[in-house]
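JOB MANIFEST
job_type = single_chain_structure
chain_count = 1
residues = 245
[input]
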Amino acid sequence: MSETATVARPSGRSAAQCRPIELVTGFTRHAEGSVLIRLGETHVLCNASVLDKVPPFLKGKEQGWVTAEYGMLPRSTHTRSDREAARGKQNGRTQEIQRLIGRSLRAVFDLKALGERTIHIDCDVLQADGGTRCASITGAWVAASLAVRSLQEQGKLQASPILDQLAAVSVGVYESNPVLDLDYLEDSSCGVDMNIVMTGSGNLVEVQGTAEGQTFARPTLNRLLDLAEQGIAELMQAQKQALQG
């Protein structure tokens, strides 16, 4: 797996090229923080709501909470599937992803500084083409930042409880080559699938990596991490631009 090897990706992108990134803030009217993130053909709407309460296990502890829910609209994929969340149940994948989003956000929050309130992020996949969990994390951080800005503007927070920037991207081994930002065609046939969550200071929050039918060596892992770091830097630049707009 050569670092300089070329690979024919379905999208025509180079191995180290992200899909086009677009972040549209203020996408919905009522949420304290709202952003539509488009990562190629993957589109996720992230709405942040501020609740003046905390879960029961945090009552009286003088700290806040950040949590997330994740769901896919019935025709966000090639075929229609029932939205389980609307029926009061969630499958294991949905639960795993929303827990990932929540703990990733909490890694960059000072929950004491947030006060006894909850920031609840709803991540709704409008259209899926791979990388929905990573797009959700990247968009959720922007939505949370907008919600915090709203609290500051109302005088409810003197300083931001957000400690660092946060974004996520997928990497993998496709046609025996490490590639950045897998779309669905690549994700469904790759040899290695990995999701990386990082902070703006370059620290890792989570690394989810699985060999899909083939093992991979340590140098390949290093290359995948390098690609992820590059892609996350691009995503974070887009986040900054969206918040300045």
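[summary]
Strands lie at 21-25, 33-39, 42-51, 65-72, 118-127, 166-174, 177-180, 192-199, 204-211.
The mean pLDDT is 92.
exit_status = 0
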